[in-house]
Write a structure and sequence with these properties.
- With 178 residues, this protein is an all-alpha fold.
- It has one domain (8-168).
- Helix content is 66%, strand content 0%.
- The two termini are 22 Å apart.
Length: 178
């Protein structure tokens, strides 16, 4: 079970149980996967902004895609040899993110803008992927009024999803619903 008290190193170990990619291309694979998952999350949020559904109706889809973003960020950080001794709770507490525009902006546009910041930060070599996802988790917590840490909630969710896929022999392949 992944909680706020779980270290990033322990999360990486859990995620590593379902990691399937060529080690010689780990960096490029993980960076490309991270950006593609941010794009998938942005696509869901775009649909909310457009009015296809309410933000609360699409909350599970947003969290599902964010969990995939977390998976890639953790695995990329491990690949880079980043220190992963902090707990998920400490990681979120360590970031400072101004969420004061939330009320004025509206929940869906605010989330869309935060997704753009996340994508920008992930493309900036000096910004840690873990810090970027921790900041975005603060946004999710604000938008959805989460009691718990959005980062640990997403990490636990993706770990369960990937374990289930591994048990069913469908870890590789295409699509969210395999």
């Amino acid at each position: 079970m992944i909680t706020d008290e779980t270290t990033v190193d322990d999360v990486a170990a859990v995620f590593g149980e379902t990691a399937v990619y060529p080690s010689e291309y780990a960096g490029v694979y993980l960076r490309t996967g991270l950006l593609s998952e941010v794009g998938e999350m942005a696509n869901v949020i775009k649909k909310v902004v457009r009015g296809d559904a309410s933000i609360d109706e699409y909350r599970p889809r947003i969290y599902d895609e964010f969990g995939d973003v977390v998976w890639y960020a953790v695995m990329l950080s491990e690949e880079k040899g980043a220190p992963l001794h902090m707990t998920l709770g400490e990681l979120v507490e360590a970031v400072t993110f101004d969420d004061s525009e939330h009320e004025a902006f509206g929940r869906a546009p605010y989330l869309a803008a935060a997704t753009q910041v996340l994508a920008r930060d992930l493309l900036t070599p000096t910004v840690s992927a873990l810090r970027a996802v921790a900041e975005f988790s603060v946004v999710l917590g604000t938008v959805f009024g989460e009691e718990g840490n959005a980062l640990s909630l997403a990490a636990q969710s993706v770990a369960e999803k990937l374990r289930s896929r591994a048990e069913r022999g469908v870890i590789q392949g295409d699509g969210d619903h395999r």
